[in-house]
Amino acid sequence: MGYGLYDGLVDMLLDFLGLSDSIQSSLRSTLIDSLEMTTILLFLIVNTIMLIWLERKAWPRMMNMRGITFVDFNYGHFFGRTWKFGFLQNIAEFLKFFSKEDIVPEKADKFPFNIGFFAFVVAPPFMLGALLPLGGDAVIADPAIGFLLIFAIFSLYPIGVLVTGWSSNNKYSLLGAFRSAAQMISYEIPLLLSIGAVVIVTNSFSLISIAEQQTLTPFGLPFAVLMPIGFIVFLTALAAETERVPFDIPEAEAELVMGWRTELTGFRYMMSMATEYFILLIGAFVGVSLFWGGSYLPFVPAEFMNELFEFWPLIATFIFTAKLWVFVFLFIWIRSALPRVRIDQLLDIGWKRLIPLAIINIVFVIVVYLLNPSIYGV
Amino acid sequence: MADSQAHLIALKDKHINLLLHSEMLEETRIKIQVSAEKLPEIMKFIANELKFPSLESITGVDWETHFEVVYHIDRWDGDPTVIQVHVKLENRDKPEIPSITSIWASANWHERELFDLYGIYVSDHPNLKRILLPEDWDEYEHKDPSVLYPMRRSYKLPEKPFSYKPQPKK
Amino acid sequence: MSEQMIIHMGPQHPVNHGLWTLKVRTEGEKVIDAEILIGYIFRMIEKMAESRPFNTFQPLADRLCYVSAMSWEASYVLALEKLMGIEVSKRAQYLRVIMLELQRIASHLTWLSAFTADVGIVTMQALTFREREYILDLLEHVAGSRMMYNYFRVGGLKHDIPKGFEEDARNLTHFLDKRIGEYEDMTEDSKVFRLRTKNVGILDKETALNMGATGPVLRASGVRGDIRKIEPYLVYDELDFEVPIGTNGDCYSRFRVRMDEMLQSTKIIRQALDNLPGEGEISQKAPRKLPKGEVYFRTADPRGEAGFYIIGNDDKIPYRVKIKSPAYSNLALSSHLLRGVKVADIAPIVASIDLCMGEIDR
User: Fold this and answer.
1) Is A3 among the domain residues?
2) In this predicted model, what pLDDT tens digit does every residue of A31-41 receive, in sequence order?
3) Are A142 and A79 part of one and the same domain?
4) Which of A212, A293, C23, C138 is deepest in the core (most CB within 10 A)?
5) Do the chains contact at B76 and C218, CB–CB below 8 Å?
6) Which of residues 110-169 of B touch C (CB under 8 A)?
7) How far apart are CA A358 and CA A196, in angstroms?
8) pLDDT tens track for C59-96
9) Helix A171-202 / helix A157-167 crossing angle, nearest 10 deg
10) Does the distance separating the beta carbons of C29 and A343 come in below 8 Å?
């Protein structure tokens, strides 16, 4: 396991220091692991910032606006226009948020307000870095329960939202927190059920082996094509889990101002917003691995891809990242087109539509699997 | 217009003794005048018998010697008639008029406005309090009634607009 | 969450598009009762009208509603003309109709932007403002100002239309027809949009009439109530158009009525451009003094029936000017609509009645 990027580097370093004989192998792997964790966290943070940039650029484009533009490097003036893309806008705003006063409401319940937010809202997504594959078989840890662990850690999030919203002693926060908790808890069921079919045909929880199995299907088609109902249920449930439009009810700005994060200020607010995108990104990791074939492409032989990845592993990461962006772009597109549903309609959609659809999907997949398992690459 | 005339004739037939004055202002405007006590009775007749379903507005007029309240009532089924009911309130110190909220629910806010800006007390109103001015306007330091009810003629607009710029210190 | 709690929405809250407070008592997600507090921008504009010569009040009539300034100054000017007994030339009347209908579309587009944003389609908010800007450009070309026109005059208009206006206006109407069709695609075709607006905030016919609903709110409840048809002013009786009505009285009907009205308005503008007489006095002399007498004049504002009750006293200063604001009547009934709905429905319901605080607080 591991990315294999740092082994040589660490060995060289230890040789240089003359420690390679005396140091224990577990310490060596700890050193490698910490370097790899830094890598994946950097990857996640940079990608989160860039995805926020994508959202703030692509969505205004759909509204005939330019989006963020001016805070950027100076690329010069040529071809009749000044080329600026606003790449640094988010960084500038993050710095601004960090410099703001941190206000804790006077009548808030201070202990849960702090602990609930940092321990359950901000921290969990950062714990997941080790489980996320970066293309090919590059992953730090690949436990047997695989992505179940991701969803288990995900489910801490609503607790944090509920505690933060409730303790901030604001009616909007309270309503938003209750909505958020109701929504996330009820949508975890269709989310996991939609993945159930994938687990049945792959007999695995590992994101890497599921991605690999999608190369064995006819023409290397990914599961998004082979089990479309499951994929649509997954997308919908993921939109609800990450509180994106049309399911951004917990923060419905029309009536609840900012939902459960109404009383968050400064870097707390920034962290809560960044965490939302962070979770979306992690959801995209899962979605790309489970339904879009990871870093493999359809119609390209798996042997060729594997040789390419052996030769140059960054290509796998590149393809995977590109898929991540497309996946997140889907959500941005949906956001620009759809209104927001009401909380009771949302719960109706979850319980009365998505769960039956997910079960139909499972039955459908099982029938096809029994008739001809090679369709799913078994 | 014949329709409008017919409404006036129907009004006269039924309630000639209540109408202090009645005329056609233009082709489609009926002006009648009634006393404050008989107002609900005639309004009920207009709403239920003449089938005028909606009250458009209630206007207070300060004629310096007395107040006048004007009701505009119309219908939306293609008939352009507007009945304009005038009520004279002779008691300037304590003007009072019965509420018609039970007949037309839309009178609610208009009557509150009447109370707010003219100080005309509307009896039997379900929720009579100030609407456009702050609710605690009466408790402000100036107790002058002309300031309490600014639409009365005795309240004059200031000559210059108020300036909120800080004055230079001498 | 079975105990009740009171939520103050406002005076600054995304739901209210202006300064007013909605005090809702809720039980969980259900609204038990709603109270509306207004008056935050009360300027006593009626008092101002009573303390200055009638012609100097006209710019203030513009400021009654910043979204439909043209129709408010039209109401005022037309009421004065009725009181003075002035007949305006046909050309000026047709031009007035064109301006009024352009203003109606601009106002409805602003409403559409607010409504869709409250339902959750923020994209539409920017798109509708883009089209509104084309109309404002055209009106600026005519009147010299983008929002506060002061273009109408007692006895006609300030000046004639600029060169090329007719062609521009005609092109714009075709363009708008196309764009309004696109908006229908973006909203009505969306299942989520229908979920959010159908059977939400239902106002039946009798209640609507009794509570004083006017304009699109009344027509959405199935009453064919449009002053342009009932009591035609200007040249509306010479133009061929329909009054769209809704059936259900819910938010969707109100949305539908306004969309249809925009399409009817483009039709009216095209007809008026076709029939526009080439010759005619644009501005004629008006008397300096208001005659003794009273007039109650109604026009079809984009928000409903706007009325001016003016009492003249043989003086250049009117004795009494009462402004009947349609949004005031419609807001008054919104607390009735909000009773028993979900908290999430407050935003679409309040947005669907189209508020403009300038004319409510006056």
Assistant:
1) no
2) 888 888 888 88
3) no
4) A293
5) yes
6) 130-134, 150-151, 155-157
7) 9
8) 888 888 888 888 898 999 999 888 888 888 888 889 89
9) 180
10) yes
